[in-house]
Design goal:
By secondary structure, this protein is α+β, with helices and mostly antiparallel strands. Helices cover 39% and strands 24% of the residues. It folds into 3 domains: 104 residues, Winged helix-like DNA-binding domain superfamily/Winged helix DNA-binding domain (Arc Repressor Mutant, subunit A, Orthogonal Bundle), CATH 1.10.10.10; 81 residues, SH3 type barrels; 80 residues, Alpha-Beta Plaits (2-Layer Sandwich). The radius of gyration is 23 Å and the shape is globular.
Length: 302
């Protein structure tokens, strides 16, 4: 492993992310003349302690943080610290960074006022034959056949995605032509067909923009409208809790009317329940009724 090349590559990734760029492995691999798998390994292993989030389609820097404010160390020192054990024996060039890092770690006057809690991601073996075959099929828009426990299916694989820390295959089931997700860890075998589907990468990205959970239902999007009480309105002004979130109206008392475009109740169910009692479902009526009935059933059990 080239020490210089690895450090420079990791620094390149970190700097792009700090500029609020959303990146994917193929994009960065093309820029640096390496394989996408190399970039995936850099992010998933070498840079795993950094505030890097993924939505299953790419990586981005946590919006609330910047590396130079989130740590005592500058970006070069941070990268070197993460690579030090792996690279220390291969080069003396790391020593000047090591001395600076050690001085800061030993100096009790340096206090880090920031704490970043990162979401735990399920481990993924990017070098496995399953992942490699799916990657090839996705990049070339090939159909494939997969085997899960007790099932063999013909699919059009679109993306390997991450929802709530769990990895899934996002693909079209050719039995009924609907898009579904399968747990990546449940896929036992992949067989590529060298015939191509006509779904473009741009169309897939657009479809994923309206996919919020692994339980989405293809072809049945609907709108959920809620009233956000003034006590929590700022949390919805500051960030989108779902990509389809839109502020429809701001009211004189500080409340908000917010809409979500979702494909299944589960897309927004947990979000609404997490903010009770400071959120009211306005539409659709059947969803509002369901929330009330579930809460009433819960109270009866208590």
């Amino acid at each position: 492993m080239s020490v210089h090349a690895t450090v420079e590559r990791c620094l390149h990734i970190v700097r792009k992310l700090q500029l609020n760029e959303k990146i994917n492995s193929k994009m960065v691999a093309d820029e640096l003349g390496v394989t996408p798998r190399t970039i995936q390994k850099d992010i998933n292993e070498r840079l795993r302690a950094f505030p890097i989030e993924t939505d299953g389609r790419g990586w981005y820097w946590m919006s609330e943080t910047r590396l130079d404010r989130a740590s005592l160390l500058n970006d070069e020192e941070e990268v070197v610290l993460m690579l030090a054990l792996e690279l220390l024996e291969e080069s003396d060039n790391i020593s000047r960074y090591s001395r600076s890092i050690m001085q800061k770690m030993l100096d009790s006057r340096h206090v880090n006022p920031f704490f970043i809690k990162q979401r735990e991601l399920e481990a993924i073996d990017i070098d496995s034959s399953i992942v490699n075959q799916l990657e090839e099929a996705i990049e070339n828009r090939y159909y494939a056949r997969i085997a899960t426990e007790g099932k063999r299916l013909r699919i059009a694989p679109y993306k390997i995605v991450n929802f709530d820390g769990i990895w899934y295959l996002y693909a079209r089931d050719m039995r009924d032509k609907k898009i579904r997700t399968w747990l990546l860890r449940d896929i036992r075998q992949v067989q590529i067909e060298e015939t191509t589907h006509d779904m473009t990468h741009e169309q897939i990205e657009k479809a994923l923009d309206h996919t919020h959970t692994a339980w989405f239902e293809d072809g049945g999007n609907f709108e959920v409208v809620v009233r956000i009480h003034p006590e929590i309105a700022d949390y919805f002004r500051l960030r989108k809790h779902l990509t389809s979130q839109e502020i429809v109206a701001e009211h004189d008392d500080g409340a908000l009317t917010v809409s979500f475009d979702v494909s299944t109740d589960e897309d927004v169910d947990n979000l609404i329940k997490a903010w009770l009692p400071h959120i009211d479902v306005l539409e659709p009526e059947r969803f509002k009724t369901r929330i009330v009935e579930e809460l009433e059933a819960y109270l009866k059990r208590q």
